[in-house]
Amino acid sequence: MKNIADYRNKKILVLGLAKSGVSAALLLHELGAIVTVNDQKPFSENPEAQALLEKGIKVICGEHPEDLLDEGFQLVVKNPGIPYSNFLIEDALSRGIPIITEVELAYKISDADFIGITGTNGKTTTTTLIYEMLKEGQKNPLIAGNIGKVASGVAREATADHKIVIELSSFQLMGIREFRPKIAVITNLYEAHLDYHGTRENYVNAKKNIYKNQKEEDFLILNFDQEECTQLAAETKATVIPFSTEQYLENGVSVKDGYVYFKGEKVIECNKIVLPGKFNLENILASVAAAKLSGVSNAAIEKVLTTFQGVRHRLQFVRNFNGRLFYNDSKATNILATRMALTSFDQPIILLAGGLDRGNGFEDLIPYLHNVKSLIAFGETKEKLLKTGQKAGIENLHAVNNVEEAVPLAYSLSQPGDVILLSPACASWDQYKNFEIRGDIFINAVHKLV
Q1: What value, to the nearest 5°, has the Cα angle with vertex 141 and ends 262 and 330?
Q2: For residue range 46-88, what is the model confidence (pLDDT) as tens digits?
Q3: Residues 160 and 235 in one domain
Q4: What is the three-state SS of 334-365?
Q5: Range of the domain at 226
Q6: Per-residue pLDDT for 146 more than 80?
Q7: What is the per-residue pLDDT for 276?
Q8: Which residues are documented as binding site?
């Protein structure tokens, strides 16, 4: 860790706690900053704030005081989830106070290079694959961000021999100033988080920040199957490495004659890859690019791709039971994610779907239901889904109370060779605290089958 003097004796406000806020406050305090933490949770119910106070850090809890910025702060470190429409953030901007997220702090103190991954879909799978490939290739990776430890905590541990592989959200990327990954990946760009960003343009601009500080000796891995991503190649100073599932790219990563190629070199036969689906192939190509640029051997890449069965709850292979293949895609909390899952299989599918009713219909699923032989619906949206299934011509339509009931029914309706797929197309909050709990219940129910 670099013991930098950039923050020494500066008055800094850490706005919002959670893991990233706690880590940022402790780090800044150690670097000699005069830190104040402000969090909405009352002090009596806030063990994190209590622990920071014991360290000598000033804490203000239970509200965001309107006059808070009158204390003369020189920097605000914002929790990524706090929108820029927050009145304190707007006040800080009007006063010209810089606003960063904890990722920027991690970069400032890190002795290790960063490999940063962003995009609308596939971030977690791509980040995990890159980490596993670098680990198999003995490149000393550390994983950070939304799926690992807090970035500044990881950066504390990192040496120059490490590589930090980090998943980055648009929320985090809005708060960077100097952050510069050696390798950056944009998996794809779709419309998302408009409640936070306001417009698609704002959302895409936030994603673009991943490469705004890159130079010619850095690399930007882009999805050339998307015109919007292709156009970014003209905007960056970095060396662009394109990937595509649809066209052969001599200077990038692509598929030809059943093999994955990196710059004309055969890397792995596609039939050996365990993860199903075209969208996962995109994630794989991006990961291969990052691994090859990091000096990982083809043998190490092949070892990972022939054994990696998916990130938990993201089209995760669960079990082959009597010839039925069970997949847990509980993270599919919207129609787009379920569409992508359905296109991953050529076999007959028994689809388990349903959850929180956000007022939308499911007609957009109809063109993707042609392989679905049975639909089992649950949750608040079950009636809507059954009507959609009827319109799609699915003959076997069933309603159940929950995921646990759906699994044995799905098995009873199936035949060897069928895929039994949990891909709800809905959030879980009508019945389950989060999608992870929903997916775990599915997994447990699958393993109870005898």
Answers
A1: 80
A2: 999 999 999 999 999 999 999 999 999 999 999 998 999 999 9
A3: yes
A4: CHHHHHHHHCCCCCCEEEEEECCCCCCCCHHH
A5: 103-305
A6: no
A7: 87
A8: 119-125
Check residue 50 and give its pLDDT.
97
Q: Examine the domain organization and report whether 94 and 111 are in the same domain.
A: no
Are residues 329 and 190 both part of a single domain? Answer: no
Taking only the tens place, the pLDDT of each residue in 213-226 is 999 999 999 999 99
Residues making up the annotated binding site for ATP are: 119-125
pTM: 0.87
Mean pLDDT of the chain: 96
State whether 134 and 70 are in the same domain.
no
Residues 277, 141 within the same domain: yes
- The answer as to whether 311 is a domain residue is no
- Number of domains comprising the chain: 3
Checking if the pLDDT of 148 tops 80, the result is no
The amino acid at residue 340 is M
Same domain, 240 and 300: yes
